[in-house]
User: What shape does this take?
Amino acid sequence: MTFKIVIKRLLFFVLVVWAASTIVFFIPRLSSRNAIRERFGELARTGGFSPADIEKLIASMQQQFGLDKPLLEQYWQYLGNITRLDFGYSLSRYPTTATEVIAQSLPWTIGLLLVTTVLSFVIGTLLGAVAAWPKSPGWLRSMATPFILLTGVPPVIMGILLLFFIGFRLKWLPLGGAYSVGVVPTWSWTFFFDLMQHQILPALALILGSVGGWVLSMRGMGITIQGEDYVNFAEHKGLTGGRIFRDYYLRNALLPQVTGLALALGTVVTSAVIVEGLFGLPGIGTALNLAIRANDFPVIYGIVIFITIAIAALMTILEFVYPLLDPRIREN
Amino acid sequence: MANIAMTPEQQSIHHPSGLTLFLRYMRRNKGLALGVLILLALTLFTVIGLVVVNPKHAYPLSAPLKLPPSLRYPLGTDFFGRNLLAAMVVGMWQTALIGLLAGGIGTLVGVLLGFTSAYFGGWVDSAIRTACQILTPIPVLLIQVVVAGSLDKRDVTIFTMALIVAMLAWMGPTLVIRAQVMTMKERQFVSVAKLSGMGDFSIIFKEILPNLLPFIAAAFVGQVFAAVFASFYLAVLGLGPLREPLLGNIIWAAQSQGAFFNGWWWWPLEPAFAMILILGALALVNMGLDELANPRIRRSE
Assistant: This one.
């Protein structure tokens, strides 16, 4: 890969983050809603401040958040802050910054996302490949069908169904939360098992909700590849079925699947965020839920921009991995 | 031999009507048929429901609270005193409205931009393409969260929901239509039309557009699916029009009142099943149309 392509990809990454940040900067400023005024309005209703004091407070807060400066200056300062991952203070948990809120919930989300995405990608890709391969046994091929039927079911709804049938009816697994109420987090096996028990349902919801998509795209790819000359050639060379399946068929069908993964990252992350909110796991999703309920705008915007940065970065990394998988790209 | 083809008997060949051809195609494309059937059933449910049920009962304090399904309230009532049958009917209607509106706007913008981009090429093309490429990785739902969150709660209605969803939904159709027009531009019938002196607009409308209809239909169904999905997610996060019985809103309300913990299982389950039917049917129709539009992915068996 040449230096020029690397620069181009990095530039693309910067452009994506810039576009997202700009949208997030300007949309709230187009609306008539004033977060600080709303916040202090609430305080005034409960606290009994005099209206003049409230106005002073609002003015000083506006100054502190830099909202009294000209728009362009605010914009520059804001872009600078984003390069330092500084999204300002949380309104509802004041001394904490939005970045700290994100950092606290991030490990949970990364753990859940990594496990579920890898599992559903691998299972879906293999099932799809097997489903399209004419020589695979019938029982294996038919295993793909139930997953394809689940394609239309969003992970959140899958979560609700699992909550009802497995959590509420059968009482096999807990209904939500990160660990049982009253348990103190410690480095012990009992706590670890308790923790894992609470992760099973959300993980299942995400996996069942997304495997079907991978099955479908892989099956489509597999069907097109079977007619290709190189597969026929391999058959005429007398290679074993397993060898053809692995080296000629799977290897070539896998490439678009990796591109698909890069494109699906946005959906994958948002699904995880919403499922986390549903199950009350202490990840980014719950942080976003709480922030929406409390009108905590710095945290909402921080989470949105942070996730965009993460997705754009992952896409860029996948772009760099792509030539390692595909010799044709490496040659050019 | 040539004379045989001219015999009168040959002229009375039975031409199957459009309907039979349609039904025959449906028998081959079973997914499409099933999807269309479910959508028809849902439409029937909504239309009959809107006539039979009083839509006012879909709003809070119109029925007794927290009743499980019974003869009088077939789907039960919720914590806020909605008759859930009425809520399902109205919610289904509103979901359809948002989906069709947002899907329609998204597809229209996509078709216009895709055509402009592919047909005129040059800097217009690269500008539109770059914009699409840069906007695609940004998680649409999160931007929608920012938009919906910046609005005054009173301004969030079914129509603003549709607009919020449509605003960031045009990139997909733009790229699909652009790619199709690009290939079609090189086809012979377009060159012939150009050589015969047809203008840009009549080539677009008389030559290219009719050939694109299956793709546009597929893009439209895909957009409706995406719009229903996105508005559902927004509502589940509590960013929908809170008074309206949108399916996602019902789930949000049930979730925030701890419906399962309190044993009100019917409350979140009913909108969940309704949503499965809607999204499942749309996904089936979408796949079926893809098969119709792209012969390359037609089943090999």
Remarks:
- Residues 88 and 263 of chain A are 30 Å apart (CA to CA).
- The mean pLDDT of chain A is 81.
- Residues 100-295 of chain A form a domain with the MetI-like fold fold (CATH 1.10.3720.10).
- Chain A has 14 helices and no strands.
